[in-house]
UniProtKB/TrEMBL annotation:
<keyword id="KW-0012">Acyltransferase</keyword>
<dbReference type="GO" id="GO:0046872">
    <property type="term" value="F:metal ion binding"/>
</dbReference>
<dbReference type="InterPro" id="IPR036985">
    <property type="entry name" value="Transglutaminase-like_sf"/>
</dbReference>
<dbReference type="Pfam" id="PF01841">
    <property type="entry name" value="Transglut_core"/>
</dbReference>
<feature type="active site">
    <location>
        <position position="317"/>
    </location>
</feature>
<dbReference type="Pfam" id="PF00927">
    <property type="entry name" value="Transglut_C"/>
</dbReference>
<feature type="active site">
    <location>
        <position position="399"/>
    </location>
</feature>
<keyword id="KW-0808">Transferase</keyword>
<comment type="similarity">
    <text>Belongs to the transglutaminase superfamily. Transglutaminase family.</text>
</comment>
<protein>
    <recommendedName>
        <fullName>protein-glutamine gamma-glutamyltransferase</fullName>
        <ecNumber>2.3.2.13</ecNumber>
    </recommendedName>
</protein>
<dbReference type="InterPro" id="IPR038765">
    <property type="entry name" value="Papain-like_cys_pep_sf"/>
</dbReference>
<feature type="active site">
    <location>
        <position position="376"/>
    </location>
</feature>
<dbReference type="InterPro" id="IPR008958">
    <property type="entry name" value="Transglutaminase_C"/>
</dbReference>
<dbReference type="GO" id="GO:0003810">
    <property type="term" value="F:protein-glutamine gamma-glutamyltransferase activity"/>
</dbReference>
<dbReference type="InterPro" id="IPR023608">
    <property type="entry name" value="Transglutaminase_animal"/>
</dbReference>
<keyword id="KW-0106">Calcium</keyword>
<dbReference type="InterPro" id="IPR001102">
    <property type="entry name" value="Transglutaminase_N"/>
</dbReference>
């Protein structure tokens, strides 16, 4: 073999004495032998007698531990506990335990476990010093011993294997590998020493334990509430979340570090540059997967990813945020989804969103690199930033939608919300990018007859119009805009913007003459298939009459602000008397926009006006309303009893719906179920009934979604109170 073609083996030699363990759920763990000699000269075939004592049984006491650790809802056959908090286990020996007996409980995670890295923990119960976890004997009853074990608040998060070893003579006699005694260790929002500690009980139950959420979409004038099933307690979901970390090849011993875990999760939820969970698709073609609007929640996505090992198609920002929220809550991290209305994108960390127009007033899409998303969804996590001063603890932004790279990967955060509000953008991670998303100025440029660009208008209050998140104990919203930014134009706001510029955020400081003419566009939301009434108001605050040559461009747009298709262009002239407002109402018939909708429901109107010495611009994004599904339930509302859910829909839109898919699911009640119809004619109706048996009690929500080629975002839900 020539030197050119010779293959160099890819191994760890020269970097580590052993390979770095990166698999938690893999089958290649090499556990300890049943007998381990303390003296290398002792024949390894001889086990110590230990006074004829041996371990007969190990009971992880799930019924006692799970309620105390708020893990009772996990549909899993193993013990699930939270770090930094005592849990019980019971060991039955072959004879009663005496004071001279020496034994220890060992917890192992990953391959090549080692005490120095926290992946091997020996818990002792006498005067002999053991590992970092503490242990105590709580009760002796005959041959059984009740033990109390408290993991450290910094312990590795994941699935541990459990052994009991009796120490006697020259070695230790261990129990055999028994998967039934494995335990899952999670972050603990109830533990003050944990980096995810959250002091408010109502918020802990909302941001860690709630398996159902509401994601806000649309525009601020027409907010759409999308139900989303997080389903962090459903069978297979916790394992799928650990599998994500395995796929990322994240070292086992880093999995107790909150910053490293959320940063790795942010990268892995998207598949942009790794073997991540979701493939993004911002188009009208979803033939190679499922439309982002068709998902009921995270469960089906995570299980498909874990079962196939391949990325799932397709997602847009709320899907990335929904799945990331499930990942975070499943492993115990307090998390919520935030929607930013009028979100600036592709800013690469500056404070300028540049929109370019041609001389005739039409949008120059080829040269406009920036865009304004109607809304953008990201996540917040509640964490202690041990790398930063105390004022930066609390809510931090993490975003898994692939937009810009951070340290070479498509991820974002954790960025302190307080740092964003105060403009302290030198702190890690990615605070400058998020700051631009909520604070950019919108700069309107018009191309002159010489081909140069002239700034015609600057809007400082359009971006980051409002930020919403689901309210605690309610399906309504909480406005959290004040946590991200000060009131526009206030002294604090000006100080923040100046500080941000000191740390590299560029702003536009063009000196524009006082604008005596302005335009506002008003359109009330209408149902898909109805005519649109667009009201154009010209405001003349000057002392001279104005003749305005106006150009209107109407487009179907993606929620990202990118044009899907133009459907109307109109020129007209408006005479605006001095110190008056002139109103013109434009009717947009449904037949003009509907053939171009595809899967979109947003229309954008841009009107540019030209006078002798001034250019003005007005913009309006209209989110069309979609019909709803009717969801109802029948039967005894009790755990384990037979119940029925019925989804019904009547097509009151004057067009035929093609290739209809209905999806239905409810955490703790019903797994994802689909039903198909070839078409639904105008005024046609469908009814679908499914039988289910509730698994969990309390307030539970069933979510239904209808998706078809020519109408999307049709949803419905019903909430029922299930008795134990």
């Amino acid at each position: 073999m020539s030197g050119r073609n010779k293959q160099i083996p890819n191994n760890h030699r020269g970097r580590y004495t052993e390979p770095v363990p990166t698999s938690n759920l893999g089958d290649n763990e090499e556990d300890f032998p049943e007998f381990e000699s303390f003296d290398d000269t002792t024949p390894r075939g001889y086990a110590p007698s230990a006074g004829s004592m041996s371990v007969q049984n190990v009971n992880m006491l799930q019924q006692m531990n799970k309620p105390r650790h708020y893990t009772n809802d996990y549909d899993i056959s193993h013990l699930v506990v939270r770090r930094g908090q005592l849990f019980h286990m019971e060991v039955t020996f072959s004879r009663p335990l005496t004071d001279s007996d020496d034994f220890q409980v060992e917890f192992l995670i990953g391959s090549n476990p080692t005490a120095s890295k926290g992946s091997l923990v020996a818990v002792t119960f006498g005067h002999r010093r053991g590992g970092s976890w503490s242990g105590q004997i709580l009760e002796r009853r005959g041959t059984s011993v009740r033990l109390g074990i408290t993991p450290t608040a910094t312990a590795i998060v994941g699935r541990f294997r459990t052994y009991v070893a009796i120490v006697a003579g020259g070695g230790m006699q261990r129990t055999r590998r028994n998967p039934d005694t494995d335990l899952y260790l999670l972050f603990n929002a109830w533990c003050p020493q944990d980096t995810v500690y959250l002091g408010n009980e109502a918020e802990r139950r909302e941001y860690v334990l709630n398996d159902y959420g509401v994601i806000h979409q649309g525009t601020l004038k027409s907010v759409v509430d999308r139900s989303w099933i997080y389903g962090q307690f459903e069978r297979g979901v916790l394992d799928a979340c650990i599998y994500i970390l395995d796929q990322s090849e994240m070292p086992i011993y880093d999995r107790g570090n909150i910053i490293k875990v959320v940063r790795k999760g942010s990268a892995m939820v998207n598949a942009q540059d790794d073997k991540g969970v979701l493939v993004g698709n911002w188009s009208n073609n979803y033939s190679m997967g499922r439309s982002p609007t068709s998902w009921t929640g995270s469960i089906q996505i995570l299980l498909q990813y874990a079962n196939t090992g391949t990325s799932v198609s397709f997602a847009q920002c709320w899907v990335f945020a929904g799945v990331f929220n499930t990942f975070l809550r499943a492993i115990g991290i307090p998390a919520r989804i935030v929607t930013n209305f009028n979100s600036a994108h592709d800013n690469t960390g500056n404070l300028k969103t540049d929109l370019i127009f041609n001389k005739d007033g039409s949008a120059d899409e080829r040269n406009s690199r920036d865009s304004i998303w109607n809304y953008h969804c990201w996540n917040e996590v509640w964490i202690t930033r041990q790398d930063l001063p105390a004022q930066f603890h609390g809510w931090n932004v993490v975003d898994s939608t692939p937009q810009e790279t951070s340290d070479g990967l498509y991820r974002c955060g954790p960025a302190s919300v307080y740092a964003i509000k105060t403009g302290q953008l030198f702190h890690p991670y990615d605070a400058g990018f998020v700051f631009a998303e909520v604070n950019s100025d919108v700069i309107f440029h018009q191309r002159t007859q010489y081909g140069t660009l002239e700034v015609t208008e600057t809007l400082t209050d359009l971006i980051g119009e409002a930020l919403y998140t689901k309210a605690v104990n309610s399906n309504g919203y909480t406005d959290i805009t004040h946590t991200y930014k000060y009131r526009e134009g206030s002294a604090d706001d000006k100080a923040t913007m100046a500080r941000a510029e000191q740390y590299g955020c560029e702003r536009d400081h063009s000196e524009l003459p006082e604008n005596q003419l302005s335009i506002t566009l008003i359109a009330e939301p209408v149902m898909v298939g109805e005519d649109v009434s667009l009201q154009v108001n010209f405001h003349n605050q000057g002392d001279l009459n104005k003749t305005v040559n106006a150009h209107l461009t109407a487009s179907v747009v993606f929620y990202t602000g990118v044009v899907a298709e133009h459907f109307k262009a109109l020129d007209f002239v408006a005479q605006v008397p001095t110190n008056q407002t002139k109103t013109k109402v434009l009717r947009i018939p449904a037949e003009e926009y509907f053939p171009h909708l595809g899967s979109q429901v947003s229309l954008r109107f841009i009107l540019t006006g030209q006078t002798d010495n001034q250019s003005v611009t007005g913009m309006k994004v209209l989110n069309l309303k979609t019909p709803s599904l009717n969801v109802s339930v029948e039967g005894p509302k009790r755990v384990g009893q037979v119940m029925y859910v019925t989804v019904s829909f009547t097509n009151e839109i004057n067009f035929r719906l093609e290739k209809v898919k209905l999806s239905l699911a409810g955490p703790g009640m019903l797994s994802d179920t689909d039903h198909y119809y070839s078409s639904i004619e105008p005024l046609g109706s469908i009814t679908w009934t499914v039988e289910f048996h509730p698994r969990l009690s309390g307030s539970r929500t069933l979510v239904a979604v209808m998706d078809c080629d020519n109408l999307r975002q049709v949803m419905g839900s019903v909430t029922v109170n299930i008795m134990p």
